[in-house]
UniProtKB/TrEMBL annotation:
Pfam families: FtsX (PF02687), MacB_PCD (PF12704)
Comp. bias intervals (Low complexity): 112-123
Main localization of the protein described in the UniProt heading: membrane
Similarity field: Belongs to the ABC-4 integral membrane protein family.
Protein name: ABC transport system permease protein
Amino acid sequence: MLKATLRSFLAHKGRLLLSALAVLLSVAFVAGSLIFSDTVSQTFDRLFASTAADVTVSPKEDLDEAVPSGRTATLPAALAERVRRVDGVAAARAEVDVDGLTVVDEENEPVGPTTGAPTLGTAWNPNERSPVELTSGHTPHGDGQALLDSETADRKHVAIGDTLTVVAPPGSFKVRVVGIATFTTTNPGAALVFLDPRTAQTKLLDSSRAATSISVDAADGVSDEQLKQRVTAALGAHTYDFRTADEQAESDVEQLGGFLDVIKYVMVGFAGVAVLVGVFLIVNTFSMLIAQRTRELGLLRALGADRRQVRRSVLTEALLLGLVGSTLGLAAGVGLAAGLIELMGLLGMNIDAGEMVIGWVTPVTAYVVGLGVTFVAAYLPARRAAGVSPMAALSDAEVAGVGRPLRVRAVAGVVVGAAGAAALMGCVAAERTSAAASLLGLGVVLTLIATVIAGPLLVRPVIRVLGAAFPALFGSIGRMSQRNALRNPRRTGATAAALMVGLALVGGMSVASASMTRSFDQQIDKSLGADFVIQNTNFLPFPKEVTDKVRGTEGAGLVVRGRFTPVGVRLPDGDRVETTAAGYDPRLDEVANITYVQGDSATALAFGRLAMDRDFARDHDVRVGGTVPVEFPGGRTAELTVGALTDQDSAEGFGTQGGLYFGLATLERYAPGGQDSALYVNAAPGTSDDDLRGHLERTLDPYPQVQVRDLADYKQLVHDQIAVLLYLVYALLGLAIIIAVLGVVNTLALSVVERTREIGLLRAIGLARRQLRRMIRLESVVIAVFGAVLGLALGLVWGVCTHEVLALQGMTALAIPWTTIVAVVIGSAVVGVVAALLPALRASRMNVLAAIAHE
């Protein structure tokens, strides 16, 4: 049996090639994501471990800053002198590191990265742990000198002697580049500007007595943990954060973890789609191969092979297929990881591909995925093969299930579908977002499974409708193509299912994104009352001088500032919620349309008061007039009175949990040092919007990171952000279509082999080559469109239910992107034509007599 199995596998290797490609793609994305993330993680582990001081003292920050506030946490620089006197300390340095800077050249062009990586300003304190070294020029001295990292200098063509403008939190200032510093380790993509230590304090922190951290080096014979304990005892355990080198490196890696997780999850998403769609392809391939080998399997049974041996033989072929696909997929995964590393290099993150990490988990996972997919997909066909009767060797019987009733599928599909429909209806009826989202996920999974199970039941009624015009348009050729698609509902359903999965995903996400876009448009129209909004390109805060210049701009009337801060709120029901709160100037009503359920802007923005969303207040037993303890950065706390409750659905800019906001006077009292994140500007009487825009753009010309946006610009900004999600979905769709095309090609190719004698007879009675090719193309088109119809119908249901979840967050508008849906159906027909090219060509080249004599 083993010899027979190996010979059978080698005899059908051409037919199994396309299934192996599906396994290859699945494994490649899994292996590539693991290799890439492991390589990047290890690279940064080495970077942070080699650059972290033995002990780092930093300001105590109890609140996570989800939205940048522009506040730089500091501690007294004089602490360095106190630390130096601690027993076991070899050296202590006051460090200055400030991110969120903007640096422009003499032509007012940004010098920093445009990929989201930060531009950092730091004090030049060279030591053996520094990640950079001076490679040309000299160290900076005094206010007007700076060093620039070599990669930024090369990328932006900055040379020694050039003048740069640095826009820092306290204000902007000019520096002359006097030297170039080169990274000795991996550059995470940031741009670095190095200043004289005293200059860094005054220009970046606006204080010659402040620092952002203290770096401490241990004396010989003193461990990091011992040094930490001694420094903590000297300064007080509750005053600052103390971390050893390992703890600091771990903290830095955690901050980077979000970026790495996004890439990893995207890759795993691609792998998941490839696995899911690949399963349909492999099931179909093995089902058809077994159908074509009915007589062969019958002979094996007649010669003495029992059911278990036949089943084991088919599963062995599947495992051989999985082994080949996994091996090739692992190699492709290495190449994919190398490509991602090169892509990161183009984006400014230089990782050495020669240090690629391939841990034992990667090949084990690759083979588990590859072998698991093929084994699971081939199990049902293998069981079917084991049921072949020895008498089948004496007939032309098939075991593909052409004539078998679909009652079991019908019952299973109805049961699973009913459960899925119930979950989706529960999602629509749910009043809490978490419950609705959970029911949505369950409903999506169950309805997808139900559609796959019941797909063959829908083949005959749907394809009769889709192909109804074929006889009239293409005559007998159209009628035969339609009947070929109807001949084996199981095969047609499985082939179309591969395409259905991708299109259901894109249909659901398209409805969700279109609804989000329309909802945001409606909310912006309803809530934003300012003529213009001034914001940073990357939503980072900007220095006070920008606000001052906007206020002094010709034609500018009312200017209302918006600022953010992290807060911790202890609520009457005992919960403690960490969120982001906003602060606004008193005349907020004139630039934003806010619906108050209780109170008004005057009570909301009064000193010592705050406003919150009514639903949040109801959930936590908050009442107007009650007080809530609020924790601010730096350990400050305040008892604030609830002055107003709002309808958050209509409150522009209050998308964070709780919709908390208060007056800027309150914010500046308890969280000083922050920066404005937005300015809402109205034109002065007698000034047109166009004139004011021109004046504002000229005023902000020295600040290329700051943008002037009107209502339409603001909407476009939201559209662009939502489009990023759609691009990912379309990429997933592209992968699903690639594998689905392989499935259609495989099905048609095996179908041509299966119908060799039939094709020969058709050619003998006068069917032309061109007519034969058209018949196969039409069959492919109707299968592809059938998959598209099922997928889009399912996707529309998912999309509408997703909209109900979004509606609980205030996004109530429903939009169906009919243009996208029509385009997808047309595209599916094109996919069908493309997938049929090779099988149709092969069929048309058959020798007629050899085809008629085919067994």
